[in-house]
Amino acid sequence: MVLRTCVRRAKLGAMTRTATPHLDEAELIWQQCLFAFEDPTVDAGFSGLTRTQLDDTSWVDIVPGWLRGADLVFAELVARLPWEQREVTMYQRRLPEPRLTAWWTTTDGLEPLPVLGEARAALTRHYSLPFDSIGCNLYRDGRDSVAWHADRERYEHEDPVVAIISTGTPRVLHIRPKAGGASRTWRLGQGDLLVMGGACQHDYEHCVPKSATVEGPRLSIVFRHHLAAGWVSDTVVS
Q1: Tens of pLDDT along 139-194?
Q2: CATH assignment of the domain containing 93
Q3: In sequence order, what DSSP letters do the residues of 96-154 get, joined into one string?
Q4: Is 96 part of any domain?
């Protein structure tokens, strides 16, 4: 598979686990592979959408393969975005976050790729909310992860909706009730869309755990609404 070949070369040539990531070589790697990729687009009709009611007030929508041409989007974003490794507060300590991140809001001008504008417009129409911010998270391999958390928009909005497109190597995402109880699991990648809504950020938390069996990188693209004017740099996202 072309994606696996490119990912393997990128891991060797660019996605090093250094404190200050440098991905300059990734652009040359991806340019040699782009001819084999499908042109990206999104399913604006949300065909195949299924909704899971977590309880009476919280829900999760899933659309498999919502982003078509996800391999190209993965490749382009890995090569183009200004990746950073932030410090976050965990266990009352400031520690390097075990993944790389990049951010965009409407105040930055055009989206990093035209298809992200298409995705943002489709989400805005479907959920009747002004999605204006995009967070990208690069999990370089199975050692990168994000711990149990709820996204901090719950402090700003009564019922925030968070939409996540997963590209690259599939990874599992767990969601569990904060009050205790069994978790639910989705394995997401290659353009799958997961949307958390209702009281999900108030009553549930989610994580992407480490995995000893995952070798390739995963890139999640997270869309949020009402955040362009006041982005919180220490926000933990999935």
Answers
A1: 999 999 988 788 766 556 678 999 999 999 999 999 999 999 999 999 999 999 99
A2: 2.60.120.590
A3: E-SSEEEEEEGGG-S-SSHHHHHHHHHHHHHHTS-EEEEEEEEE-STT--EEEE--GGG
A4: yes
